[in-house]
Design a protein that fits this description.
This protein is of the alpha/beta class. It has a single domain, classed as Macrophage Migration Inhibitory Factor (2-Layer Sandwich). Helix content is 25%, strand content 29%. A four-stranded mixed β-sheet has the order 2-1-3-4, covered by helices on one side. The protein is globular, with a radius of gyration of 16 Å. The chain starts with a strand and ends in a 16-residue tail after the last strand.
């Protein structure tokens, strides 16, 4: 069920879909999620951003992974580490003329206050 939010500074020339696919694969590989399609990801570039003291050639990429509550801190840390590792290899960050700060965090969604519905497409015969 994880919800993945990829946020990044708009000065980065990245293929967000490629990065999301790599992160999804890494999250599924942790064994914490039943089906690959349970992982829902999206990306958003920010035109207005400041890194530190607004020095030139700065950029950021941040992953927020929301999971249903109940996992230990150690498991959530392992999920964050897997997401960050995937992020690090999903793009050639070193080739950019920017200093890029990469980060990943995992936070919990309280199951008692979470609602979800899944629709089934109508198939013509």
């Amino acid at each position: 069920m994880p919800q993945v939010h990829l946020e990044y500074s708009a000065n980065l020339p990245i293929d967000a879909a490629k990065v999301l696919k790599a992160v999804n694969a890494a999250l599924f590989a942790t064994g914490q999620f039943k089906l690959p399609q349970d992982i829902k990801s999206r990306a958003q570039a920010f035109d207005a951003f400041v890194v530190g003291d607004d020095l030139p050639h700065q950029a950021f990429v941040h992953l927020r992974v929301a999971v249903i509550d109940g996992r230990s801190v150690e498991v959530r840390k392992a999920i964050a580490d897997a997401a960050l590792a995937a992020l690090q290899v999903a793009h050639d960050w070193q080739a950019l003329p920017l200093q890029v700060q990469l980060g990943a965090e995992v936070h919990e969604i309280t199951l008692a206050t979470y609602a979800r519905a899944i629709t089934t497409p109508q198939v013509a015969v």
